[in-house]
Amino acid sequence: MFGERASLQVCYPGPSPVGLGGRSAAWLTGMIDAMTYFFRSLRGRHDWCGNTDKRTWMAAKYVARCLAMLREQLDFLTFIENEPALWAFRRRDPRMLERHLHRYLNRGWHRSQRLQAIRRHYHHVLAAMPAPLFRAVYVEGIARLGLLKLKDSRRLVLSLRPPIFFGCEGELCVQLADELGNPLYRVVVTVIDDKTLAIGCIQGPVGADAKEIVRELTRNLHGLRPRSLMLALVGAMARHWGLSRLLAVGNAAHPLRRPHHSFTADYDAYWQEQQGTEVDGGWYELPLQPRHKTEADVPSQHRSAFRKREAIRREAERLLVDALSAMPERHRQHEQHAPKSDFGHLFHGVCAEAS
Predict the structure, then answer these.
(1) Phi and psi of 24, rounded to 5°?
(2) pLDDT values of the chain reduced to their tens digit, one per residue, 355 residues
(3) Which site from 6, 93, 201, 271 is most exposed, i.e. has the minimal number of CB atoms within 10 Å?
């Protein structure tokens, strides 16, 4: 799938294959390696915060949850250990080792489904993303893709970011920020299988002045709603990666929705507004290519603003697709005459925590 590289498959015992010679040695080596990776996953856990007792308790819970799905967890750790780029990401965000052991993306999923989705996402992005882009996003913490000029001459910064620490809504964040780096809008997505991109959330400004920020930003985008721009970017990403299905989590299945806790976002209404259709499992299926108005659909007195809105949307999509378009390094060997792309000037990320 997507140029997926075979990873070491850990062999697990029924009875020990005594007397099978080479097979016995391979079985033993695989088990030793897997358990080494497991014990290594207890180290460097700066995501386990607090005093010694609290950190010990968090480690004990991690071990207990791993034991409940030991075979799958060992295979996942082996996959990470055999991918240098993922190992570097694991050092930055060790929570990725156990994100699937907690609520994640869809409340209706069990742990095996969460783990399968996360593995498929990283199989895909390792094969589909240029190596410098993957490193900027997942190791350095941000890949700045370019600038969008606003009506008042200020600019927005379009970026890709990793999941937030302790995040439960997906594995890749598309972000719009002001020139100082303050996030304004972000949408979090995950490639959950070989044909599906799933949206875990769309977040806008927060605080007492959030509505005013949204109104001002919409005016500066010539009437283009920021959430619509974010959704257009997600659609462009899915189409570029050859995915045929776009899902978005609904209210009832959202991982942050819990009994006796308030959940203010109304995703259902927004997905329905965006031509989404409710499907099984708490999802909404959205059109990959939503219908956009043409200039002929707009009254003549509003056509100038319409053209400017469309220009911003197309420029944002171009910046994203251009960043994703370079051939991944692991595929370059199969294209002997392909020119080598230099993305260094685009992806000078800073080593900053996503928050």
Answers:
(1) -65, -40
(2) 433 433 444 444 444 444 445 677 777 787 888 899 999 999 999 999 999 999 999 999 999 999 999 999 999 999 999 999 999 999 999 999 999 999 999 999 999 999 999 999 999 999 999 999 999 999 999 999 999 999 999 999 999 999 988 889 999 999 999 999 999 999 999 999 999 999 999 999 988 899 999 999 999 999 999 999 999 999 999 999 999 999 999 999 999 887 766 667 889 999 999 999 999 999 999 999 877 778 778 888 788 888 999 999 999 999 999 999 975 544 444 333 333 333 333 333 332 333 2
(3) 6
Tell me phi and psi for residue 93, to 5 degrees. -135, 80
Whether the CB-CB separation of 346 and 144 falls below 8 Å is answered with yes
* 14 domain residue, yes or no: no
Go through the chain and tell me how many residues it has: 355
**φ and ψ of 279, to 5 deg:** -125, 180
Cβ distance 213 to 205 under 8 Å?
yes
* 18 in a structural domain: no
**Hey, what are 28's tokens?**
């033993």
Tokens 């420029």 belong to 315
What spatial distance separates the first Cα and last Cα of the chain, rounded to whole Å? 31
Cβ-contact 131, 329 below 8 angstroms: yes
Range of the domain at 306: 106-332
Asked whether residue 297 is domain-assigned, the answer is: yes
User: What total number of domains does the chain contain?
Assistant: 1
Domain contains 36: no
Please say whether the beta carbons of 137 and 161 come within 8 A.
yes
Nearest 10 degrees: Cα torsion 249, 119, 353, 155: -60
Separation CA 254–CA 198 (nearest Å): 12
Distance CA(147)–CA(176), nearest Å, equals: 9
Q: Parallel, antiparallel, or unpaired for β 245-249 and 277-279?
A: unpaired
**Total-model pTM:** 0.84
How distant, in Å, are the alpha carbons of 114, 119, 251, 265, 313 from that of 201? 16, 20, 10, 9, 20
Contact 59, 39 (CB under 8 A): no
**Strand 196-203 and strand 245-249: pairing?**
parallel
